[in-house]
Fold:
Amino acid sequence: MSRRQVLAYRAALHGFTGAPHDALLDLGVQDSPVGSAALALSARGLPERGLTTVWSFRGAPHRHRSSDLKALAQALWPLSDADARARLGGLGPTLRKAGRDAVSAIRETAEAVAGLLTDGMAKGDLSAGVTRRIDEAYSFWCRGCAATHVHDQLLRLSALHGGARIEEPTPLTFGRIPTWPGVPEAPKGTERLLLAYLTLHGPATQADAAAFLGTTGPRVTGVWPEGLHAVGKTWLPESRVAAYESAEPARFVRLVPPSDPYLQMRDRPLLVPDERHRKALWPILGAPGAVVMDGDVVGLWRAKKSGKRLALTVTPFGKVRKNDVEEDAARVAEVRGAPSFEVSYDG
Structure:
């Protein structure tokens, strides 16, 4: 397995050189910070119609096909109590110490969402209403809000199961997903999500695919897909082996936003070998966008809009094709609603 081969394969499936593979939208497109999804879709020539924003993978907002939401909720339902605790992060050990079942916590919270959700409901109202309906062990004192409310990650992981969609990102408001069948009874179809990850971001390990779902490798062993081909210590669907082996680097430059699908692969050292560059690309707060050239991440970019003008600042890691950068910057400016733009280089 060579880095060159992996990136050539992934870049093609991500749609930088043609139509993206279905696996891209099978996993949705993350929209944080707000507006990222629109930039990511435009980088691949994909329309925004037919998509709905929900809290899905790892509790983050993603744009998914509206027709996929019911199956997605079933596929994201926890596989076990241990899996649910892993997905809940810091709340998981707290629930265990309190003698509470994590799956039950998600179910109770999802049912509370389903029972009170109305169209145009503000997040604060949703959170307050859910808090009144659930076990007090699922809430905590929030210094920032100066109130006791449901743990945020618990609400994020439960909202889709309760039939909630994001109507507006700012201020954050929710609405009901039409004809919602109710809270899932059991997980169904998780292996399809794992297969989509291995297709789009493969070859990859079981731990990589599990981490995308917000859990750990051992938790998904029971639903690990069949029909996989080993590439060293990683896996690729057998149906994708020929495409992988024949993949060749293509010439392109895209300015992709923070949380772009291309930046969602879990083997970050393969995508960005230099540790200093990884720290700059994935800081704890305030992540920049990435300049992707021929499959390689070759720099960072940030933008600031002033009136009708968008100013983009590019920080190269090495050589970049400036003419191609400025050509794609025009697309970014159009999506951001800026009639004019300028590109400057830092370093």
In short: Residues 161 and 183 are 5 Å apart (CA to CA). The first helix runs from residue 3 to 13. The radius of gyration is 21 Å. The chain has two domains: 1-50+189-347, 78-183.
